């Protein structure tokens, strides 16, 4: 596979936090001849500008940003599609490979292929849920596009085995139904000496959203401080710009100096200091339509790669792996169970230090290079 001779276009929605899109872009930047990235922030992001970068042999040639567009969710998706057409055609290039992260962007790639502008299309599914929109018509339309994209893409990449199973039920051939999990750049992780680890510091990473179990953490903190007065919590992330969601930063700020709010940080910076913390929190809410049931969460991969024992609920697929490999503690969505799990990791030395070792073992094979090389080999070999 001579990827360094390929011209590639990557189109994706992005959040305020790093994920597989950024990992893929970094890999392609180092390995392709030409790379065009088109990023559209979700409607709830703090930065509303779509961003375009055009690279040749890893060198940035042109950079474009759209006006800041604060639009309703469905209208935002529609605007993103128009902007993708506009920016892709603006560069007057033909591409060897188009990677669309979600069915809408993959659908655009399929149209480009029919127009002779791209040779191959990858549909990269990084999340999935039975009901994408509350509006029945929008939901029906979205899954019609999803079906169109899986049927006409050259390859369908899926972030979790749960999504692979869904694609199999949709009659997608196994040769096109590829498991492409979340990964990490291990070189960005800064190792820390054992005596520098802050075992009594919890860390909560990612979007501050009810589905991530933030409310459970807030309820459990007073109980935890009664048992462990020296315990601290570091919060890395922010509340999405959604009217229905409470401002979690304000709530955490009101809880005193034992809660340290870092806000949104570059992923490389997060990995530089994450290993120093003691215990990672991932208490996903078991609500019916939580897309984390079908995810391979980036923040959990970050935790494990940084050797943090993870307290997690049985929502994402990786929770079972954490329990089996003893890389943390599996709990029910209950503040008493969360307190009990923290207590176990603070008082059981043998379990704690082995969990840190087991955490890294669980994800040591998940480097972005390994993941994307294998996925692309299935297209070009």
Automatic annotation (TrEMBL):
The keyword DNA repair is assigned to this record: no
Pfam families per UniProt: Glycos_transf_1
Sequence ranges assigned to domain Glycosyl transferase family in this UniProt record: 187-361
InterPro entries: Glyco_trans_1
Alphabetized UniProt keyword annotations: Transferase
A biological process from GO: lipopolysaccharide biosynthetic process
GO MF entries: glycosyltransferase activity
Protein's name in the database: Glycosyl transferase family 1 domain-containing protein
């Amino acid at each position: 596979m001579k990827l360094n001779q390929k011209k590639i276009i990557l189109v994706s929605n992005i959040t305020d936090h790093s994920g597989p899109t950024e990992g893929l872009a970094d890999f392609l930047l180092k390995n392709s001849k030409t790379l065009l990235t088109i990023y559209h922030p979700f409607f709830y992001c703090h930065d509303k500008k779509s961003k375009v970068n055009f690279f040749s042999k890893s060198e940035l040639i042109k950079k474009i940003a759209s006006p800041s567009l604060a639009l309703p969710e469905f209208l935002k998706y529609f605007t993103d599609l128009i902007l993708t057409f506009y920016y892709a055609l603006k560069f007057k290039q033909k591409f060897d490979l188009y990677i669309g992260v979600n069915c809408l962007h993959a659908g655009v790639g399929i149209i480009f292929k029919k127009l002779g502008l791209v040779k191959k299309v990858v549909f990269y599914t990084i999340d999935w849920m039975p009901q994408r929109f509350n509006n029945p018509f929008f939901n029906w339309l979205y899954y019609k596009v999803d079906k169109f994209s899986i049927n006409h893409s050259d390859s369908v990449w899926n972030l979790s085995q749960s999504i692979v199973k869904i694609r199999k039920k949709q009659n997608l051939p196994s040769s096109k139904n590829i498991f492409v999990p979340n990964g990490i750049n291990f070189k960005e992780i800064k190792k820390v000496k054992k005596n520098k680890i802050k075992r009594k510091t919890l860390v909560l990473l990612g979007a501050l959203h009810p589905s991530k179990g933030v409310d459970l953490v807030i309820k459990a903190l007073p109980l935890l401080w009664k048992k462990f007065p020296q315990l601290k919590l570091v919060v890395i992330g922010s509340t999405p710009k959604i009217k229905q969601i409470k401002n979690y930063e304000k709530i955490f700020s009101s809880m005193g100096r034992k809660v340290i709010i870092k806000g949104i940080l570059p992923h490389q910076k997060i990995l530089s200091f994450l290993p120093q913390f003691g215990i990672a929190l991932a208490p996903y809410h078991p609500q019916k339509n939580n897309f984390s049931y079908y995810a391979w969460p980036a923040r959990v991969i970050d935790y494990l790669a940084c050797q943090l024992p993870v307290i997690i609920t049985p929502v994402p697929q990786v929770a079972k792996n954490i329990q089996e490999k003893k890389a943390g503690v599996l709990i029910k969505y209950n503040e008493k169970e969360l307190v009990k799990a923290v207590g176990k990791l603070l008082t059981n030395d043998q379990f704690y230090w082995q969990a840190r070792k087991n955490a890294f073992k669980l994800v040591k094979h998940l480097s972005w290079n390994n993941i994307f090389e294998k996925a692309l080999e299935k297209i070009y070999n």
